[in-house]
């Protein structure tokens, strides 16, 4: 593989790691307990270009490459996945505006998000439409130069704090193709008829915001359409690789964070008059964990490298996400095992990593969906 780390990559890694150590780790437990969104930490992250590393400077970002963004995600999730997801998901869906939005939309909506002043989100999932995006029912009916939106969304990251959301709605109830007839709209939070209900009691990433949304005759002008009317599903497919590589990077960060805790604990904890890291059973666990993390990391960097070259490497991104999310779950489990009974308590960060790891197997397409994509690709059924 041909990617290499530049001085810029090394610097952004150092910056993100230090930020994680100094600003995130000390307050991670409190934010997990209280489910409090880390507004104050976001303000500090803004100053260090950690909100939108790879959005072009012209649109308010730091103008770095895609790999730099992946490195930031990895390092922040290594510190704490809950606070990290609150910080890194503030721009969730920005690719839609970047790739398919008008210049006016980019200036009006993307710039304040990339600068960290605004938050955005993407509302695709519905109570009856999860993995099967094409079955979504939220309706947007044309009324002259406006559209009137009715329907419900669930599990929407930043749903109750976002300044605006990209809402995927059906504009054609009888499209010629199953995946057609869906359009993406920018919906600002103060549109009459829009409401958000925070979803409490998440198992993990508890410092990030999640909400259910309702649209009751929400009217938006036609200039709020992103891209082509009826083509939102196809637009989405064009940058799924970026989102999946980003989640795979989250998983690598989580696995590394859990490993760090296990390594430290194994050197401190004594049983049978010696540190438990002297026991071969523990050494073998550490060796397997370190090897799995390295393999996952390489898959992530490969996908990031291909994205950086301008591609949409669907197969590589799905492989990276499938593998890295499993590694995150398994490494977090082994890290907890190394802590023995103490790992079962919230006093140790490993308990949080264990809960947080699970989400990487669920969002941006479940592991089953990644397997479907990989299988179709190896069978030559899709051109990825
Ligand atoms: C914390 C969190 C944040 C989220 N953020 C967002 C967000 O910001 N925006 C958004 O739109 N959505 C978001 N989601 C939703 C997420 O993307 C969906 O939960 C996910 O796509 C799965 O959909 P579902 O939950 O309806 O499960 P289902 O699709 O009902 O799947 C249930 C089970 O069936 C399996 N399954 C389904 N179809 C197939 C198939 N064809 N072959 C094999 N197995 C299959 C799945 O893998 C899973 O195991 C979020 C979810 C969570 C939990």
> According to CATH, what is the class of the largest domain?
Mainly Alpha
Structural domain tally = 3
The total count of strands amounts to 10
- SS class: alpha+beta
- Shape descriptor reads globular
Mean pLDDT: 97
CATH superfamily annotation of the largest domain: Butyryl-CoA Dehydrogenase, subunit A, domain 3
How many helices?
A: 12
Describe the secondary structure blueprint for this structure.
Elements: H1 7-34, H2 39-47, H3 66-79, H4 81-88, H5 94-100, H6 103-114, E1 120-123, E2 139-143, E3 146-157, E4 164-170, E5 182-188, E6 194-198, E7 210-221, E8 225-226, H7 232-237, H8 240-268, E9 270-271, E10 274-275, H9 280-308, H10 314-338, H11 349-357, H12 367-378
Parallel strand pairs: 1-4
Antiparallel strand pairs: 2-3, 3-7, 4-5, 5-8, 6-7, 9-10
Helix pairs in contact: 1-3, 3-4, 3-8, 8-9, 8-10, 8-11, 9-10, 10-11, 10-12
Bound molecules: flavin-adenine dinucleotide.
Describe the structure.
With 384 residues, this protein is of the alpha+beta class. The chain folds into three domains: 7-91, Acyl-CoA dehydrogenase/oxidase, N-terminal domain (Butyryl-Coa Dehydrogenase, subunit A, domain 1); 120-228, Butyryl-CoA Dehydrogenase, subunit A, domain 2; 239-378, Butyryl-CoA Dehydrogenase, subunit A, domain 3 (Up-down Bundle), CATH 1.20.140.10. It is 49% helix and 15% strand. The chain contains twelve helices and ten strands. It has helices spanning 7-34, 39-47, 66-79, 81-88, 94-100, 103-114, 232-237, 240-268, 280-308, 314-338, 349-357, 367-378, and strands spanning 120-123, 139-143, 146-157, 164-170, 182-188, 194-198, 210-221, 225-226, 270-271, 274-275. The chain has a four-stranded mixed β-sheet. A four-stranded antiparallel β-sheet has the order 2-3-7-6, with no helix packed on it. The protein has a two-stranded antiparallel sheet with strand order 9-10. A hairpin with a 2-residue loop joins strand 9 (270-271) and strand 10. Helix 8 (240-268) runs parallel beside helix 10, helix 9 (280-308) runs antiparallel to helix 10 and helix 10 packs across helix 12 (367-378). The radius of gyration is 21 Å and the shape is globular. The chain starts with 6 loop residues before the first helix and ends in a 6-residue tail after the last helix. The mean pLDDT is 97. Bound molecules: flavin-adenine dinucleotide (FAD).
């Amino acid at each position: 593989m041909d990617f290499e780390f530049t001085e810029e990559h090394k610097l952004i890694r150092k910056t993100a790691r230090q930020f994680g150590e100094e600003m995130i780790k000390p307050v991670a437990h409190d934010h997990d307990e209280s489910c409090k969104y880390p507004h104050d930490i976001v303000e500090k992250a803004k100053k260090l270009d950690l909100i939108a590393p790879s959005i072009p400077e012209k649109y308010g970002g730091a103008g770095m490459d895609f790999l730099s963004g992946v490195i930031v995600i990895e390092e922040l999730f290594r510190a704490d996945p809950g606070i990290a997801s609150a910080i890194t998901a503030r721009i969730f869906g920005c690719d839609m505006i970047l790739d398919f939005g008008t210049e006016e939309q980019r200036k009006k909506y993307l710039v304040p998000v990339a600068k960290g002043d605004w938050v955005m989100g993407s509302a695709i999932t519905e109570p009856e439409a999860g993995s099967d995006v094409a079955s979504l029912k939220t309706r947007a009916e044309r009324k002259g130069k406006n559209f009137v939106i009715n329907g419900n969304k669930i599990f929407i990251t930043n749903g109750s704090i976002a300044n605006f959301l990209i809402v995927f709605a059906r504009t054609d109830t009888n499209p010629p193709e199953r995946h057609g007839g869906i359009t993406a709209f920018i919906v600002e939070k103060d549109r009459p008829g829009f409401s958000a209900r925070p979803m409490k009691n998440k198992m993990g990433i508890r410092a990030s915001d999640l909400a259910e949304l309702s649209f009751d005759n929400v009217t938006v002008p036609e200039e709020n359409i992103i891209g082509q009317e009826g083509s939102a599903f196809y637009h989405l497919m064009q940058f799924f690789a970026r989102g999946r590589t980003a989640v795979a990077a989250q998983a690598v960060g989580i696995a590394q964070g859990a490993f760090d805790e296990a390594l430290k604990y194994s050197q401190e904890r004594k049983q049978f008059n010696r540190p438990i890291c002297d026991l071969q059973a523990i050494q073998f666990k550490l060796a397997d964990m370190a090897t799995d993390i390295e393999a996952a990391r390489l898959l992530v960097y490969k996908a990031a490298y291909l994205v950086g070259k301008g591609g949409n490497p669907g197969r590589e991104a799905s492989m990276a996400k499938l593998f890295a999310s499993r590694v995150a779950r398994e490494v977090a489990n082994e890290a907890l095992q190394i802590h023995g009974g103490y790992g079962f308590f919230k006093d140790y960060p490993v308990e949080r990593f264990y809960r947080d790891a699970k989400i990487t197997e669920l969002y941006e397409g479940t592991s089953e969906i990644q397997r479907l994509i990989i299988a179709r690709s190896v069978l030559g059924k899709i051109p990825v």
